[in-house]
Amino acid sequence: MNLQKAAGSTHKTKRIGRGQGSGMGKTSTKGGKGQTARKGYNEKRGFEGGQQPLQRRLPKVGFSSKIEKPYAINVEKIVAIKDLKEITLDSIKSVHKISKSIKKIKLIGKSAKDLASKIKDENISVTGSK
User: Fold this and answer.
1) Environment class of residue 2 by beta-carbon count within 10 Å: exposed (0-12), middle (13-18) or buried (19+)?
2) Are 115 and 87 in contact (CB under 8 A)?
């Protein structure tokens, strides 16, 4: 069994600040004077030297509102809803293809207000009412 490290896998560490002959003397690879040359200096994450950082230049992504907006159905286009005796979530799903995830429906259109008396479900609303 070979317990030797692979060739080239380890490197000798550079000893900075050990005199001019080391090639890493005087400023010890830290450039000139100033805040960045001092010990304990910690640059903020994403700092770009005063330029607006990338994460602030780009638009916000990934927000989804917790307020559930109702799915709008135009009564003028889906005429079968007008013919229903009682308007509930299930009765609308039987007439019109809707995703299972939809919990609230809003009926829109010119004759939508006429259907307000047929609605038997609190998750269904008509234009002009909440």
Assistant:
1) exposed
2) yes
Residues 6+ apart with CB under 8 A from 70: 104, 105, 106, 125
The C-alpha atoms of residue 19 and residue 105 are separated, in whole angstroms, by 77
Residues 71 and 104 sit within 8 Å (Cβ to Cβ): yes
Contact 99, 82 (CB under 8 A): no
Three-state helix/strand/coil letters over the chain: CCCCCCCCCCCCCCCCCCCHHHCCCCCCCCCCCCHHHCCCCCCCCCCECCECCHHHHCCCCCCCCCCCCCEEEECCCCHHHCCCCCECHHHHHHHCCCCCCCCCEEEECCCCHHHHHHECCCCEEECCCC
Question: What pLDDT, in 10s, does the model give residues 38-93?
Answer: 989 999 999 998 999 999 999 988 888 888 889 999 999 988 988 888 999 999 99
CB atoms within 10 A of CB 67: 5
Query: Considering the entire predicted model, what is its pTM?
Result: 0.50
